[in-house]
Hints:
This protein is α/β, with parallel strands linked by helices. The chain is 51% helix and 13% strand. The protein is built from 13 helices and 8 strands.
Amino acid sequence: xxxxxxxxxxxxxxxxxxxxxxxxxxxxxxxxxxxxxxxxxxxxxxxxxxxxxxxxxxxxxxxxxxxxxxxxxxxxxxxxxxxxxxxxxxxxxxxxxxxxxxxxxxxxxxxxxxxxxxxxxxxxxxxxxxxxxxxxxxxxxxxxxxxxxxxxxxxxxxxxxxxxxxxxxxxxxxxxxxxxxxxxxxxxxxxxxxxxxxxxxxxxxxxxxxxxxxxxxxxxxxxxxxxxxxxxxxxxxxxxxxxxxxxxxxxxxxxxxxxxxxxxxxxxxxxxxxxxxxxxxxx
Length: 283
């Protein structure tokens, strides 16, 4: 589905680089089929050297012949970018936005009618091809558009689709989730140091254990409680450790953290503002 398509990326930061490298590494696209635009001239050489793809400061010119356009800019810059590309973008081009807290409706209101928009919420492990990306489609995007976006993000990890009204929860769980994991990872490593294990080995033990546990959950599809019980022998040391975690409120604290982050994500959703009607009236 992606073969033969031309991809344009607006904003070539770390996440966008990871997407491009994933696509090129797996042979999904050729370098000549990928181009990007950056804001500053000093970034041009970085992109050409690291990715081997064409880069430009001229966003409208770059997107003109592209089949898929990824908006990888900061949320506060989405309106400005939409204004720039509005006279150029066509209904046969797919727009994929990875701008956090920017709804599909916000983007659709700033582009010509019938331009399909898909919203994506990836997370930082995408830079090592172990990301979790959640997709939702706008009002004019089809299942085929969603499938095309899914194929792109599968090259940097796993992909799920969801209704857009649940995206604040996604932001809080998988978007912010790596930070929760890193805090737990750091705490486990600190515990190892407290017990006399060298820092580098302690961090390795904690990180690989977290990775292995996650992989076990994904591949077996067993409920976490069942997997937990597999480790917990009667009157063993694990149950004593779990007792301390429950007594410290770890379970409830993690749940409350995700709920609180979701509330904040809802507050940060880019509010409606009047789009530039000059372009839209000429569409």
